[in-house]
Structures are given as structure tokens and as C-alpha cells.
Amino acid sequence: MSTAATGIQWTDRTWNPTRGCRRISPGCLNCYAERVAARFSAPGQPYEGLVTLGANGPKWNGRAVVVESALREPLSWRKPQRVFVDSMSDLFYEQFSDDDINRIFAVMGNAPQHTFQVLTKRTERLLRWSQDNGPFGTNVRAAAFKMGLSDSLCWPLRNVWIGASVEDQRHAFKRTDNLMRAAAAVRFLSYEPALGPVDFSLYGTVPKDVGGGYQAVCDRIHWIIVGGESGPGARPFNIEWARSALAQGAAASVPVFVKQLGARPFVGEQSFLHLRDKKGGDWNEWPSDLRVRQMPEVGGNG
User: Fold this and answer.
1) 3-60: per-residue pLDDT in tens?
2) Preceding omega of 80 cis (within 30 degrees of 0)
3) Is 223 within the bounds of a domain?
4) Which of 2, 62, 175, 269 is the most buried (most CB within 10 A)?
């Protein structure tokens, strides 16, 4: 359960060095990770004690753990891969210490053959942690040294993409501002589940000086993922939101990856599209203009 091949189209595999979380915004309402965790929450199973089963279904109970046995796994993977970090958690969840986060980044920095994709809703914590590391990644380097790993790391790590989950304009504004001020070689947004329109043009550039003496490595968002919600209780997804994201991405030369239309895509006055794929992930069923799955031409610890 710590690592696995995945059906997530924009990555190759998942790596979960932590487990557990807590809902913090509307995008968390139908969390797929809660449902998966509930299936493996019996005594002796990986998610024991991390979810509560109630009348409205499973829910994270706030407890979280670091999976020490999974921590160094990427160091042994030889084939270069895109790795989604913490598909079953949030690395910047407040239950994890800065040292926990530093150790995970130290491992990522010592596996430069892979591209790690870190996605969070807790961008306030991300920004504080980034600023505490300073312009040279001091705390991550110290963690690497303590772990017996190389501490000769280029900072920010060139093989780590940092992303923010945004579901609507209000959360996009808050989270993206923090993301743009954090140290990252590559920044991306996951507009999934999309619950309302978002104006991405607000996030094209930031001042070079982002505080703490740190000079931004990049001054823009490099990638946008778009997706409608699927699973029980899925909320409607207006395909015009995807069209808008694609148009904005094209105008700003930002690649866009349309992942899925979700279980309840609609166009016009709530005219729902009836798709055979329950997640709306088969693009052969989509309008042709939405069949766009672009990847950023960046990455690697060069």
C-alpha cells in the first residue's frame, strides 16, 4: 500500500511515505483516498485507526503516521518514473513534523532519476517550511546527512514538482499565492475536482524577490491539470470550465492536462453528457477540443 502502479493518467506510480489526513475545504468532501483507506482499515491493515466509518461514509479522523518502511523505497527504483507523492495523504499536513518533511525531500533529492510530483492543499505550511529552509535547503541537507545520504543537493530540487490543489476561485487565489512564493523548480496546479470557474491569468508571474533572501527559480505556473469529480456524490462539472482553462493555458504558453470530465459533466443549461466511463476518463467520448493532455517540458536534477 505504500507504492503502487496507478491509473492516474498524469503520473507513473504513487509513493506514500505518509498516511492519514483531515478534510479542510469543499474539494475534500468526496475524498477518494478516504474510501480507499476505509477498505484497508481493519485491525492489522495499513490504515487501521486512521479513518472513522459513519452514517455518511468513511472520513479521515485526523490521525496520521509516517511509514518508515516506505521512506527509502525510491532509492532502489532504477527505471526513471514520474512519482506522485502521498496520493493517500498530504505531505504538508500539520500532523507531520518539519523533520518528517525534510527527510522525505532528502530521499527525493537522492533519487534524481525520478520526477516527484508533490500536491498539497496546505500551501501556508508549504510556504513556511520553504522559508525555514532558506535559499540553500539547509534543513533538507541536514536531514540527508543524518540519514547517510548525499547532502550535495541543488536547491530547490530540480526533480521535484510542487503543486497546489484548487477547486474554485477562492481557494485558487489563496493557495496559488503561497505556492508562487515557495521555493520550487516546477510549480503546477491541480484544478480537480473543479467546482467552479477559475481565472488562472492571475497567476502568471510573481516578483523575483519572494522574501527571506530567496530569488525565485521560476516566475510562473508550469502546468495545469483539469478534472471533474467522480465517485459517490460527485458534483457537476461544467465542461466550459475546462475550455476556459485550456484557452488560458494556450494564451500563457502553459501546458494543460485534461484528466477526466467526471461522473456528471454538463454543458449549457445543465444539459448533462451521458458517458459510459463512470469517471469520464475516456477521451474518445469527449468533445474533440477537450482531448488535450500536455505535460511540462521540465524536470530532472540538471
Assistant:
1) 666 789 999 999 999 999 999 999 999 999 999 999 999 999 999 999 998 888 899 9
2) no
3) yes
4) 175
Question: Could you tell me which residues come within 8 angstroms of residue 53 by beta carbon, excluding any fewer than 6 positions away?
Answer: 38, 41
Assessment of whether the complete model's pTM goes beyond 0.70: yes
Helix axes 138-146, 123-133, angle to 10 degrees: 80
Give the chain's domain count. Answer: 1
In tens, the pLDDT along 154-185 reads 999 999 999 999 999 999 998 999 999 999 99
In this structure, is residue 301 part of a structural domain? no
Residue 215 has which C-alpha cell? 530569488
Name the burial class of residue 82, with classes exposed (0-12), middle (13-18) and buried (19+) by CB atoms within 10 angstroms of its CB: middle
Where b means 16+ CB within 10 Å and e means fewer, 104-138 reads: bbbbbbbbbebbbbbbbbbbebbbebbbebeeebe
Which of 20, 15, 13, 21 has its CA nearest to residue 2?
15
**Total Cβ atoms within 10 A of residue 238:** 19
The whole domain housing 195 covers: 3-19+71-290
| C-alpha to C-alpha distance for 118 and 112, rounded to whole angstroms | 15
φ and ψ of 223, to 5 deg: -165, 145
Q: Is residue 24 part of a domain?
A: no
The CA distance from 2 to 77, in Å, is: 14
Residue 41 lies in a domain: no
